[in-house]
Amino acid sequence: MAENDAEGPLSRGGIAPQPLFAVGAVLLGSFLANFDSRLTTVGLPDLRGAFSLSFDEGAWLSTAGIGSQIFIAPTVAWLATAFGLRRVLGIPSLVFALISLIIPFVRDYTALVALSIAHGMLLGTFVPATLMIILRNLPMRWWLPAIALYSIRVGFALDTSSSLVGFYVDHWGWQWLYWQGALIAPLMGLMVYLGTPDEPINRSLVREADWGGMLLLGASVSMVYAGLDQGNRLDWLGSGTVMALLFGGGTLFIAFLINEASVRQPWAHVNVLFSRNVGLSLVVILIYTLTSLSNSSLVPNFLGVVGLLRPEQSGVLLFACGALPMFMLVPLSVFLLRHFDPRTVLILGLSAFAAANLLGTQLTHDWARGDFVTIVLLQSVGQAFTLLPIIIMALSNADTTRATAFAAYIQIMRLGGAEIGVALMGTWLRVREQVHSNFLGLHLENGGVDVTRMLKRLADGFAGHGASTAAARALGTLSAEVQREANVLAYIDGFWLCFWLAIAALIFVSLIARAPPGPFTPESFGAAKALMRKCGLAVPT
Prior knowledge:
Distance between the termini: 28 Å
Radius of gyration: 25 Å
């Protein structure tokens, strides 16, 4: 079943005895991974309060949980090929449930970080393993709808997590940020057991395992992520910790490339990427994760920072206008992919993102939740019409029997690109806010006529509450307004950045050639087939 060559082991498995259970495992595993990661990120302020953590301790807790996911994710496809999906997801799902149950009761910080690392590593197996279920165990006719379920998880988790965090914290308790995994993970394990065949351990593959390559790649990308995640908080080049993480991660990645080029049985040789279409598809995946930050970061953060809304308040908008439309849009996306080139569908999705970001550049401090409806609707279209065709396009140009090697790089783009993008966007917003605050503050220091008039009007309003403090209150109020406007301008810059990223993605899509015939080749409509037969043309099968 599995052989080795310079590009990695073959990745073929038996057909699932009960495909519906296999699809259920894909649905539960992929949704649980994204929901869990997103909930702990959005709910981090509540977790800091519940565990009595400082800001720094909370930041490292988040980095440990997500960094451990990035460490394990690239190797999961190989583990599934070598040991079988039941072993990779069965017992680990029960261990994950147990850890999720225990974490809310822990108060020692060292133990909390250790459990978070174990929690993240187990969680990091779910999404890559569910992708392997699709490629190894489902009949080809099931691939497109199953990958659609796999792809919708990203946008759906982004648009529902804020509301879910608010619901848990306000009604059930913050502990359910972890306890939901204790309920869902065992059900996913049961679905895997019922829906995937019992495969023997591939002992020859285990004997020839490239353990060094796996450790080097996982450690390198997780260290780079940790450096980028902490860089915004620790002032980047001014922090020895950040520099050590980034330099160490880069060095280990170079060592990984040398290892893959020199070992006899490489685990994930870069040769698997030596295809124009595959390389461009991975670039588009990376840019998509960055341009979609307008959905995951800019809109909810603006409503929180400038609009002063709690996550559950902004979450109503994201759920109603972002998550719910996906239930209608994703089936439409599947239909279009069955009959049109995925590049066409992808252009529609990226154009929707570009339009949403362009609208976002018009925002002001007066924008409230209702003003973002059109933007969130366009982002919903973008989520439904972008990630699925990207994945289909990448798989159409790759050898799916080499999914073990190819999936390693897919997971780096999926997890690493998203988390690195969030870290970089945070830095972008912080720096742009400082720049705009400095420029706006220069006008206050100059003491122009308008500034003097504004301070006098504010001081007169505060005079009734104490003439001695009126001037100080007026200056404080004006400073707060300057900071607010600086934040607004920074978010406008963020929307501009995401807009140009969407344009860059469209340019890269235009460079991708038509995929070779395969399981994802679009089918002509019935009328078109009849016309082709009448004209004596070859009808695609």
